[in-house]
Amino acid sequence: MNRKQGFIVGGLMAASVVVGALIATDFRQIPFGLAGPDVKLGADAPPVVPSNEVKALNDAFVAVSKAVTQQVVSIEVTTRSEQTSNQEDEEDILGGPWGGFNFRMPNTPQRGSGSGVIITPDGYILTNNHVVESAERGTIEVELSDGRKMDAKLVGRDPLTDLAVIKVDATGLPVAALANSDEVQVGQFVIAVGSPLGLNSTVTQGIVSALGRGQLNLNRDERGYGVEDFIQTDAAINPGNSGGGLFDLRGALVGINSAIASRTGYYQGYGFAIPINLARAVAQDLIEDGKVNRGYIGVKIEPVSQSLKKALGMGAEDGVLIQETMPGTSAADAGLRQGDVILTVDGVPVKTPNHLQNLLAQKRAGDEVKLKIFRDGSTFEKGVKLKPRAEDAEEDASASNNTRENRDESSDSRESAKLSGLGMEVQTLDGSMKKRLGVSSGVLVTSTEMYGEAMTQGISSGDVIVSANRKQVKTAGDLEGIVSDASKGDVILMQVKTRGGSTRLVALEVK
User: Fold this and answer.
1) Which of 267, 272, 340, 490 is 20 to 30 Å from 452 at the Cα level?
2) How far apart are CA 144 and CA 21, in angstroms?
3) What is the model's pLDDT at position 185?
């Protein structure tokens, strides 16, 4: 077989192998092209058709979010801290000819962030005091929702309400509509807008969980005074939301987000916003004067418990009890006194002590308010002209120490009484003890029972019972007689001078 014949035979053999393989694999003709048949993904329609009401609510959230995010800005405050290193440490470390130089650490920028709400077209922005309080030694930069960045200046701060106003140089900015926060109701939908964790223009939704939330001790000065009457919400609020807005479904601003209740520093279910009625009054003062010209009436107050209502002969109405009237204040000038109950301010029913603070914080020094007062079984109205708070109106803190140190320990030889129905023991004061305690009469509380009525109502050893049921108490026997005349369940109203030197009314139920 020659060479040509060999090529022919080899080709035929290769072709037969290929054909055999195709037959063995049940070869079928495959059409040209890379794509297979079309694959249908997903169902033809959602499984649920929302009702018109649900669709309307969803549309409302979308519309409100689109509108109000334009009115909320991101705020960044940058400060620089300069540190000087310790000269002796440098000598120890460096030694030799370099010792003794006073080296400076580099200026390290420190940044804080928060949010704010635009309240005028020309650039006034409402935010929290704690967001911008360091700006007096630094710079403020504001970023709008459209990404524009602007420098801002600090207009004024009010630490007692945790509010502040800053200003950017601009015109035609979108402005928030300010609601009437007195009309806010528990359960209504709200949305929180801000820049939590640096995430600008973030919207979260929830409801108003509670109103009139106070006693958080967030905004206190060195004298313990602060204005706290928060709107509580379950809309998610995190670090960076501070100063942002809480809006209703109309897109109206009802509050300025300020704080969260958390054990981690992050959202755990509840946030707090400053009511816009209070924020509006503060912002107006800061813009016009750079400070808040707040008026005070000058009283120490506490809630009216059911026991106090019973002891005072009140009905079901709410109010706050005046425990002490400060001398030289508006309250003293108007003749208000311990035991009076403030029922309304300018016709608005007063619910709690922090609610009263909120109402008065919206007033200025020089304004006159009309108070409805309950006293000795009847009500009357009284006009009170508010004064500015005296800077030196400070309680003498040494009174507590002096009382405690000078208390007479030899009580066994003096007249005493065990008032089991009230859960305390008292003793008669002698002349020296009266002088030390600064009282002309009364009996000294020497002990209180654990979880007894006296302890539960805040009475402690060292307090002085001055009167009971408006009768002056001179001896332990006097008080024992008043308690003996009362039946189980009766309430005895006592005037108590505390170890700190202040006086308060306390209602004790006989057990």
Assistant:
1) 340
2) 71
3) 96
162 is catalytic: yes
Tokens found for residue 109: 């920028």
Active-site hit among 130, 285, 416, 478:
130
Q: What is the pLDDT of residue 266?
A: 65
Q: Which residues of 476-488 are buried (b: 16+ CB within 10 A; e: fewer)?
A: bebbbebbeebee
Is 130 among the catalytic positions? yes
Would you say the CATH fold of 299-385 matches that of 73-87+112-292?
Answer: no
CA distances in angstroms from 227 to 212, 283, 487, listed in the order given: 11, 15, 41
Q: Quick one: DSSP state of residue 104? A: B
Q: Which of 202, 206, 132, 122 is nearest to 163 (CA)?
A: 132
Torsion 426-500-318-369 (CA) sign: positive
| 169 assigned to active site | no
For the structural domain made of 406-509, what CATH number should be given?
A: 2.30.42.10
pTM of the model: 0.65
- The helix/strand/coil state of 111 is strand
* Residue 13 confidence (pLDDT): 54
Fold of 299-385: Pdz3 Domain (2.30.42)
Rounded CA separation 181/247 (Å): 10
Q: Which CATH class name applies to 73-87+112-292?
A: mainly beta
Which residues of the chain are under the pLDDT cut of 70? 1-36, 80-110, 215-225, 261-268, 390-414
Catalytic residue among 115, 158, 162, 340: 162
Q: What is the pLDDT of residue 215?
A: 66
- What are the domain boundaries of the chain? 73-87+112-292, 299-385, 406-509
Q: What local confidence, expressed as pLDDT, does residue 400 receive? A: 36
Q: Identify the pLDDT of residue 228.
A: 82
